[in-house]
Design goal:
It contains 6 helices and 2 strands. The protein is mainly alpha-helical and about 120 residues long.
């Protein structure tokens, strides 16, 4: 890559508007939730590593659905619901077992429902 590209990339990644940073955080949250959904399937298989340790997906689910995390995500969405892309809305709706909107307004994510959805996915 040319030096100019590296410089431009470093400047972009280091300097973001608040909205850009919130968008990145929201993307990371959605992708992490989807990853946990997949990891939970593996965790239920009772897989052990070479040291005989059992993989525990429940701890990850507890962390991602913690009230402080959900509060921050809901705050971001409350201030700028357009940050949530269509695929993200579909993914969260699937996990939560219902729509994320009512009368064109976002319904705050419920941590308990998120946790239940992640634990009971097939």
């Amino acid at each position: 890559m040319p030096d100019e590209f590296d410089f431009a990339y470093e400047q972009y990644s280091a300097n973001m508007t608040s909205e850009e940073a919130q968008k990145e955080l929201l993307d990371a949250f959605i992708l992490y939730v989807l990853a946990i959904k997949k990891l939970n399937k593996v965790a239920r298989a009772k897989i052990t590593d070479s040291d005989e340790n059992i993989i525990d997906g429940r701890t990850m689910i507890d962390k991602i659905s913690a009230p402080v995390v959900i509060e921050k995500i809901n705050n971001i969405l409350d201030h700028n619901p357009k940050l949530l892309e269509e695929w993200q809305t579909i993914a969260l709706s699937d996990i939560l077992g219902g729509t994320l909107t009512k009368e064109d307004k976002l319904i705050p994510i419920n941590g308990d429902k998120l946790q239940q959805g992640l634990l009971h996915q097939n």
